[in-house]
Design brief:
Structural class: alpha/beta
Shape: globular
Strand order of the largest sheet: 1-2-3-5-4-6-7-10-11
Helix content: 25-40%
Strand content: 15-25%
Oligomer: single chain
Number of helices: 10
Largest sheet: 9 strands, mixed
CATH topology: Rossmann fold
Length: about 300
């Protein structure tokens, strides 16, 4: 397996490239260095990428008391990872195997995992496939039950996503679409949010994922109940768990969060006011609370 790490630049991370089990070239960002503490592995949402975790990763890797190595992955077809010629490989099962291959390349045996949306679904699979790799888990606005209405909202938005010509136009579009659900975001938050979604190419803004990824959503029958992952969630019940939910989330219901807490009595929860799916983990007190959760796990 080929792996390459670039020198850490001033912006706080190094680019890391490795080979997936099928040979596809994949990418991750590496923040900080091995401090002897539990490393943190960050897994983004469906069409998102490692940039989503930039400010949180800086906070965790530069913590004065407990600095941690942080790895933020780009799934295949997102960010700096190569696009797959076969869009049918864009599945959580394949992506879970890709993450495990990345951990092997990085010589990471286990760590604390943060999963936003799809990243949390991958964590559910890892709990079934390789539970020993999970020493602590943060689920960001995801659980064993995905609400069909929330997934329908995401699919409709992605299929009809506008193509902004500038960052300022992109910010205006995102605020118009998501502003009600994310009333707590500042102007700076919106800019960071937008810059994580798009890349600039040839003077244009491009959504930073393979458009073929949307084919995986087209075949989902939202008129029927979606599969649930309670069996896989059971595998998380012996692992320290922090579940975060956006107050306005349409994907993770309050009822599902309550049932998660019933099945995992030691689970900690945070409901983020003024945010929907999925809360920006670098906002407000979330970085400090996540850092405190990891520190408590390590000290217990």
């Amino acid at each position: 397996m080929i792996a390459k790490t670039a020198p850490t630049p001033p912006d706080g991370y190094a680019d890391f490239f490795y080979s997936a089990p099928d040979g596809l070239r994949l990418h991750a960002r590496i923040y900080g260095s091995d401090s002897g503490r539990m490393p943190v592995i960050c897994l983004p949402g469906l069409t998102r990428n490692a940039r989503d975790f930039h400010r949180l990763a800086l906070h965790l890797s530069r913590d004065v008391v407990a600095p941690r190595r942080v790895v933020a992955f780009d799934y295949r077809g997102r960010g700096q990872s190569a696009y797959d010629r076969n869009w049918m490989n864009y599945t959580v099962v394949t992506e879970a195997a890709d993450i495990l291959a990345g951990l092997v390349a990085l010589e990471i045996e286990h760590g604390a995992f943060i999963g936003t949306s799809r990243g949390g679904l991958i964590i559910h699979l890892l709990a079934a496939m390789r539970p020993a790799v999970l020493k602590a888990v943060v689920l960001n606005d995801i659980g064993p039950v995905v609400e069909g209405a929330g997934l329908a909202h995401i699919r409709a938005y992605l299929e009809n996503a506008p193509k902004p010509k500038s960052i300022s136009e992109a910010i205006a579009i995102q605020r118009a679409i998501h502003g009600t659900a994310f009333s707590a975001l500042s102007d700076q938050d919106w800019e960071w949010f937008v810059r994580a979604i798009y890349r600039e190419e040839g003077g244009r803004l491009i959504a930073d994922y393979d458009p073929a990824l949307l084919k995986t959503l087209a075949g989902i029958d939202l008129s029927a109940p979606l599969p649930v992952l309670w069996l896989q969630f059971q595998g998380l019940c012996g692992i320290p768990l922090l579940a975060i939910r956006g107050e306005n989330s349409k994907l993770l219901s309050g009822e599902t969060l309550k049932e998660m807490a019933r099945r995992h009595p030691n689970m900690e929860t945070i409901t983020v006011p003024g945010q929907g799916h999925a809360p920006l983990l670098e906002t407000g007190a979330l970085p400090s609370r996540i850092a405190a959760f990891f520190e408590k796990v390590e000290q217990s």
